[in-house]
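Re: the 448-residue chain
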Amino acid sequence: MTTTAATALRYMHLRRNFVFFVLDYFAFGVGFGMVGTSSAFIPDFVSQLTSNQSLIGLATGAYYFFWLVPQLFLAQIVNQRMWRKPFLLPAPFVRLTMIGIAVVLVTVDPRNTGLMLIAFLIGYWSFAMGDSLVTLIWGDMLGSSLPNKLRGTLFGIGQFMVAFGAFGMSQFARWAIGGSGLAFPLNYALIFAVAGAFFVCGGLGLALLREEQPAPVSQKSPSMREYGAYLGNVLRTDRDFRRFVRTRLLFDLATMSVPFYTVFATGNLGIPSEVLIADTIILIQIGNALGALSMGVLSRRSGSKAVLLLAGACLALEGAFAFLSYLGLGQPALYVTFFLMGVVSGTIYPSYFDWMITHAPPHARPIYIGLTNTISAVSNLAPILGGTLLQLTARPAFSNLEALLPDFLPISAVMVRVYPVVFLSSLLLASLGWLSALHLAEPRKRLN
């Protein structure tokens, strides 16, 4: 039997599944770009309902908790089932949660901000818990439904489409929230409804997937009693997986300086915020699109390790160009940083998934996905780490003149943030991550 014939038998629904995977990738990516944790929309919306800074931060911070923690426990339940598709059938209904938030905002008295806040938090975190299960099944079926070489192509096409879709939706969101849009809270309800529509479309795509015949199981799935010991054994015995986890943690922590590029641009370089926002959206999306195209080609030819090395190199260059901007190259160098951010966004997370799905044993793929995503929760500390470094290295702006000025002038309270410390720390961590990635095995070679 030829390789082509064997592939046709192994992937009987290849074209159908590829189309619906791309549909979900695009629809979910655009929707999450509007109301996701990395968007400025959610903090802005919550700030309309409360002035409590802790609650504003909790809205997105707790999202990761409700998304990550269930995966480690749900992975074992999923792994004990031969067929995974039934877990995806509720996906469209789970994703209706965002439209539910929009309905609440439309129907509740606009003055009752407390009720709107409670309803939003319940809905937003419920969406996260539902998506934690969908993520496990999505990754597992992606590994069993598409050949290894085709996954990189899917990620590249999907990420390229998301880049332009997100750009269009950002303009829509700017209109909706701006002065020419609807009044509060109808303007925010409209964005939640549109994002929800994208989510549901993606969920329908997942529900229409056809699961391939499961491969014979060569190893029994661990019982719930054995599960903890099994996870520890994976980390002890799978050296390549440990290297991958180490590489990912270094890369993720290297993003510590990302929140401070904008602050540095407006505060130190004097770029007006409205100009900066418009320019960075374009630069990041161009970088995202080019990164997605590069990933599609590179992954198909060389595998996920090559894409990880590309993403790591761009991540290191981010910190380098930000540092050069501080040294005197100014706005042009910082704009290169924003462009590289887009390239990293278009390559690094898809390559994480591609490497892990290819490397994980088919009988334990959901467990590997859940374990990796749970460990990666440490990366949420990256902005806190960057902010702490800035606080520790801050110095008085007029320390040399303090003795010459009157006591009533509070010049000691005027502090200068030493941004090069954070930029160089990001450069160092990304470089260490790149060296770690250099020693990663390419999982496709093991399978050939």
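Confidence is low (pLDDT under 50) at residues 1-7, 397-402, 408-415.
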